[in-house]
Amino acid sequence: MIEARHTVKAFGQGDHIVRALDDVSITINKGEFFTLLGPSGCGKTTLLRLIAGFEMPTAGHILLDGVDITDLPPNRRPVNTVFQSYALFPHLTVAQNIGFGLEMQGRPRAEVAKTTAEMLALVKLEPMANRKTSQLSGGQQQRVALARALAPKPKVLLLDEPLSALDLKLRKEMQVELKRLQQETGITFVFVTHDQEEALTMSDRIGVMSAGKLQQVGSPKDIYTRPVNRFVASFIGETNFLPATPVAGGLQLGCGAVVEGLTTAKPSVTLTIRPEQIRITPADDAGAIPATVTSLVYFGTDTHCHMALSDGAEVVVRVQSPASGEAGVRTGDSVGLRFQPAAAQVLED
Q1: CATH number for the domain formed by residue range(s) 2-232
Q2: Cβ burial, residue 207 (10 Å; 0-12/13-18/19+)
Q3: What's the pLDDT at 122?
Q4: Could you give the maximum distance between any two Cα atoms of the chain, in Å?
Q5: What residues does CATH 3.40.50.300 cover in the chain?
């Protein structure tokens, strides 16, 4: 549905040029929920604005459904955008806000009324059709903004961090709601966020960006379990980084333990292993990696156990909190650590 080909967007002149996008090529499939994920300043919103037509690329092309739209103005693109600020009209009712775009397009009054009713039902706001938007909660206003953007039936809906202003509980509810809306409408959603949880829970695929470049594209599971570099591994969830060197039979950690079955042609690499993939065993467990518990952080559903290996390397282990609330270990305990070699990822950059 969307293709960016060798897209560059530069700001400034001479020695002060900043490349917000640096030769980005990406393909977004029809009918998928695609998320652009990355920290502030990585270029994700710039790419969204190029798709919308609010910015023009310095170089490269933007195609939509096979048609080059690089030079088309925003009003001639079959695309709608939901912004972080919902930009609703406070003097209009919910129904009037939803139908406003259709009226501006000169659609027949009967069509506007029919589509508005359909959108109200889709976002479950029928009882509030005649309320002013200033009388709604943040989550309800978000739904109105979504309904208004979906009413013209765009081929693509662009969402620029639309949940960031909501509280945690409402944000989680809206994550489920957004995914439902995308599945029911079948419209291609392109979602921009810096929140890893949002990206993992809603997306069919994720594009991770950093410093104007696309680092990795894949399913949430691929991105989480098989990151291609250190940036992706560290940005998506929590992980442990352990320096390692190749030896006969595997990779040796700084503490001397050997992780069998992993190989590399590099003289040194970094192993990344997620906290939930590590098991805590007794200190006298033969073959386990010796460690000392340095601190425990309780998160309700689980506890993060911070460990120190003999070489000073830090490791975090996530264990499910039992009913008693105790993690089974105490600060200062000597323990052993185990993980399956297949759970570790070798990073060579």
Answers
A1: 3.40.50.300
A2: buried
A3: 85
A4: 78
A5: 2-232
